[in-house]
Each structure stands twice: as C-alpha cells, then as structure tokens.
Write a structure and sequence with these properties.
Elements: E1 9-11, E2 19-21, H1 25-68, H2 74-105, H3 122-126
Antiparallel strand pairs: 1-2
Helix pairs in contact: 1-2
Length: 132
C-alpha cells in the first residue's frame, strides 16, 4: 500500500517494503492495517485448509467403499489427486501468509506459539542430504 502525500517520504528501512513515512498516527496505522489484512487472509486460508482436508478424507472413504463393492474407482482416484493438489496449494498459501505475518511482527514463522525453537539437523545446516 502506498500513500501519496506531499509531506510523505520513503522509508527504506521499513520491514513491509516501500512504505512512505507519514507524520503522526497515520504512520503507525499502516502496519496495523497490513497486519489486520494478513490476519484475515490467514483465517481464510486456515478454513480452506480445513475444508480441503475434509474433502480429501471423504474422497478416500468413497474410494474405499467403491473398492469394497468392487466398483471402478479410477475417476474417484483422479478426483482425489486433484483434491490433494488443491490441499497442497492451500497449505503453501497458509505457510506464505504465516511467514509474511512473522516478518511483519519480527518473529520466526517456523516456530508455532508455545513450542521451542528447533535446532536444524546437520543436513539442513550444510545443505547436504543424508543418505541412509
């Protein structure tokens, strides 16, 4: 969001990008509005993830019933793959929104509230893969 006012100046150190500094309370309200927007988007993404998980579970159950009765489940399995792809997309959107919110708040997005920070495995630190 950019605000074009004659007295505004660009703040390069802003954590939310190219935000112009405004005098007084207006400067403090921009991150609050962005945070509120991100929270609303995150809430919507959470509900989409829940709905997608339910669709996948119902489809798996339907496939099980089709197989139980000896019916063809090819189309049901193809639909399940589409549901799983949609779920993966919803999960990635949710994680992106969590990271954006954490960046705005200045916290670590990978750590959920109430959980300690995890120490990455040696393979994650060095970028190499472990082979078993």
């Amino acid at each position: 969001m950019q605000v074009f006012l004659p007295s505004a100046r660009i703040c390069p150190a802003s954590p939310v990008g190219n935000v112009r500094q405004l005098p007084g309370k207006a400067a403090a309200s921009i991150p609050a509005m962005q945070r509120a927007s991100l929270l609303a988007d995150l809430q919507r993404a959470e509900s989409q993830v829940v709905a997608a998980k339910k669709r996948v579970a119902v489809q798996i159950d339907s496939i099980a019933w089709l197989c139980w009765f000896g019916d063809d489940a090819v189309e049901a399995k193809a639909l399940l793959r589409r549901f799983e792809m949609a779920l993966a997309e919803h999960l990635s959107v949710r994680e992106r929104l969590r990271r954006q919110l954490a960046l705005l708040d200045g916290t670590d997005a990978r750590v959920m509230p109430g959980q300690p920070k995890r120490d990455p495995l040696p393979a994650e630190r060095t970028g190499s893969r472990r082979t078993a």
